[in-house]
Amino acid sequence: MSSQRTAFAVPVAELAAALLARQEVIPRAQAIANEVAELLPDTAIAVYVVVDQENPAWTAKATSGEITVSEEVDFEAGVLGALAEKRSLLVFEAGKKLQREMYAHLDIRRRVVALAYVPLIANDTLVGAIELVQCAQTFPDAMLTAVNEIADLAAPAIAAALSYEGERNSNLQSISRVAQMYDLEKVFNSTLEMEELLGTIATKFQEVMNVQAVNLWMVNGDVLELMESAGPDPTIPVGTVQAEGEGIAGGISENGEPVLIDDPQDERLQNRNQGVQEGSGVFSIVAAPLLEHENLVGVVEAVNRLDGAPFDEDDQFLLTNICETASNALHNASLLQAERKVEILQALVQVSGEITSTLNLDRVLEAVVNRPGAVIPYEQAAIALEQRGRLQLKSVSGRTEINPGDVEMKRLKDMLEWASISDEEIFVTQRDDKIDSDREETRAKFEEYFSQTGRHAFFSLPLADDDGRVGILAFESSDPDFLTPAHIEMIHILAGQATVALRNASLYKEVPLISVLEPLLEKKRKFLALEKRRRTLFIAITVAVVLILTFVPIPMRVDGAAAVAPAHLAQIRPQFGGVVNKVYVHEGQHVEAGDLLADLADWNYRDALAAAQAKYAIANAEMNRALAANDGTEAGIQHAQVAYWAAEVDRARQRLEATHLRTPIAGWVTTPRVEDMVGTQLSPGDRFAEVADTSRSTVDVAIDEEEVNLLHRGRWGDVKLDAFPMRTFQGTVEVVSPTSEASADSRIFYARLAIPNHDGLLRAGMQGRAKISAGWHPVGYVLFRRIGMWAYGKLWSWFGWW
Question: Which residue in 1, 51, 490, 508 has a CA-CA distance of 20 to 30 Å to 225?
Fold first, then answer.
């Protein structure tokens, strides 16, 4: 026996050092398995650990040798179950005592000869076991003794590792919870929109708690209303209302204490699951209040853990903590809502003050459709009024005038006429190409209207009082959620005030000449309200202004668009056809009168001149011969021939001279690329070149027909051209056109100014503005002439007796 002890001696120091060098369970278990495997060759080793003492199970943490084990084995099953019961060394050898069912958790291909199980007990607690599998021989007693010695060291090492990992996991869980809380706070505080925040709270609570559903109840007056739900909860729909003490949420609103229900047979859960299909109801629930400065603002319910286990106190603690974070976010969102309500009330007060302080119908209409835009995010508002049994579109936001022929306005008017048929308000929205309406006719109409306008929301309500309908008010937006309950409440109040204001303004407008008398009466009231000294000063200033306007003369000028034209333009055209033989000038060259510009091919004309000269010489010789012979008859005939051919010679010489193209005036060649005309065939009258005389230019000034009677020949004028913005050209009026030309909606006359142009700066086509002197006239005439003429024309069109 002493030799066997020596053979299976355990290196305690080395094993203890190896265990101390590792803190986690798996490395220590593997060190234990390796140490046991060295005691007897061909022995397969498995080390099991009981991780959770409250819910014990055998968990394989390390193996050595040719063996595969199940990751987790039932605590009470097979040989491991027997070890858990006896808590002492168990040895099984081949025979009746060792059957395959006993080690079904092992995946081993060979025949097992012996099994041994050594418990790992620390402080009377079973923390694990060492499993030995031998397929060649039984276990020597000395070896089992050595394994027990190893177990004595392994048990506290495994227990310490379990404690370390439990503490580490707890710390990691705490860090994870802190991170989750930070993430929740960050997400909740990322928005101040109450509706969006409610959905975010429900969704995040569901993710953090890993539950089937989360219900968010909010205080609405004296009751709790289910405002938001994340996940399926068939026991209660969104919109459900519970009074104080009614249901789970109502009970919390009564006492403010959190609720944990982990028993499916609880009466409260039984009542809640009534009418719900079996297996889909609530089997566990935890709920906590949302408190704001110790005042209840809502209740959060978490329904059914996804792992199937009931909720515990840790879940209740977590829910209570995250409810505090949600309460802070809800408080901030409620502050924003309160601020918006204040803004809405302020806007409503301003609009109400504006529409009730005037009887001007246009001002009332403009205020109603434009002023609410400060707090209501609509894109278009419109009012149509009942007039003589017909609906008339009177005002549209952002428009000073309404064009009845405008397609958009006609479409809007048709929609308001359709909406005015109903005595109730209409609110139609479109989300994802789906029209929110119960009537097929309404869906079809708004599907077409929204597709044409690009908007997705239409809200209208009638304007009516005890005397009947006044009109209809409508708001439109491309955002289907542009109206909140607070906005709709404001619109209802505004509609009531607008109805009264529109009724009064309409009646006031029917008073005869009120549109003329109202401004005068208002001015008179303001004037009489002034102090006497200020009234006297005002009268003195008015008299002085009238005298200045009547008797003080100032120069008057009329202006108009100006365009430069050449004073003299010569067209160089051949008298007879021919081919251009040579060109002597180029574009932009200055020429004098009579300068040769080009030659045409002249051989035909030279030939004709030579022939005519020959004929002339022959006729002259024949005439001299007849005279020498004293033949008077023949001499007379030849004299006629001489005269004829002399005329032909002159004619041929003129035609030959016409082949030389000369300029009749001095000026500048303006024809582009005139030198490229060589070889061009010209017909009689074809244009060869242009020569412009720019020594003196003319400027045509467009004058309105209302001012043409102020201009006369000889008036001086100043011209500013776009090409020379820093220089003023002066000239005199040569002529005012006797006929007019159409220009847009009016007619214009042209006054022609002659301007010296010795330096050649003015070129045809330049544009600018010109001002022409119209003499000296009183200040009032200069300033108010147009207004006076317009007023005179209106009065004459109305009365026409002078």
Answer: 490
- Residue 718 contacts residue 730 (beta carbons within 8 Å): yes
Is the pLDDT confidence value at 5 over 70?
no
Average pLDDT (215-242) is: 81
Options 3.40.720.10, 3.40.50.1820, 1.10.1660.10, 2.40.30.170; CATH for 689-798 is: 2.40.30.170
Nearest Cα to Cα of residue 32 among 4, 2, 10: 10
Domain ranges within the chain, ordered by starting residue:
2-168, 189-270+281-339, 377-514, 574-601+659-685, 602-644, 689-798
Percent of the chain with pLDDT over 70: 89
- Cβ burial of 751 (10 Å; 0-12, 13-18, 19+) is buried
Cα 19 from chain centroid? 66
Residue with token string 């709920």: 287
What is 533-573 written as a DSSP string?
Answer: HHHHHHHHHHHHHHHHHHH-EEEEEEEEEEEEEEEEEEEE-
- CA–CA dist 148, 142 (Å, integer): 10
In this prediction, residue 432 carries a pLDDT of 83
Q: Give the CATH number of domain 377-514; options: 3.90.180.10, 2.40.50.140, 3.30.450.40, 1.10.1760.20.
A: 3.30.450.40
For 482-535, write each residue's pLDDT tens digit. Answer: 888 778 888 888 888 888 888 877 776 655 544 555 666 667 777 777 788 888
* Selected residue with higher pLDDT from 796 and 728: 728
Query: Please, is 662 exposed, middle or buried when counting C-beta atoms within 10 Å of its C-beta (0-12, 13-18, 19+)?
Result: middle
Contacts of 534 (CB under 8 A, 6+ apart): none
The per-residue b/e assignment along 27-41, b for 16 or more CB within 10 angstroms, e otherwise, is bbbbbbbebbbebbe
Reported as a single tens digit per residue, the pLDDT across 117-133 is 899 888 888 889 998 88
Mean pLDDT of the chain: 80
More confident residue, 458 or 186: 458
What's the pLDDT at 769?
92
Q: Is 64 left (phi over 0), alpha (psi -120 to 50) or beta?
A: beta
Asked if the model's pLDDT at residue 170 lies above 70, the reply is no
CATH for 189-270+281-339 (3.40.50.1820, 3.40.718.10, 3.30.450.40, 1.10.10.10): 3.30.450.40
Rounded Cα distance, 583 and 732, in Å: 39
Superfamily of domain 2-168: GAF domain (3.30.450.40)
* Confidence class for position 4, pLDDT limits 50, 70, 90: very low
Q: Is residue 395 within 8 Å of residue 371, measured between CB atoms?
A: no
Cα distances (Å, whole numbers) of residue 107 to 41, 44, 96, 299: 20, 12, 21, 53
Give how far Cα 267 sits from Cα of 301, 303, 773, Å: 17, 16, 104
Interatomic CA distance for residues 287 and 150, integer angstroms: 51
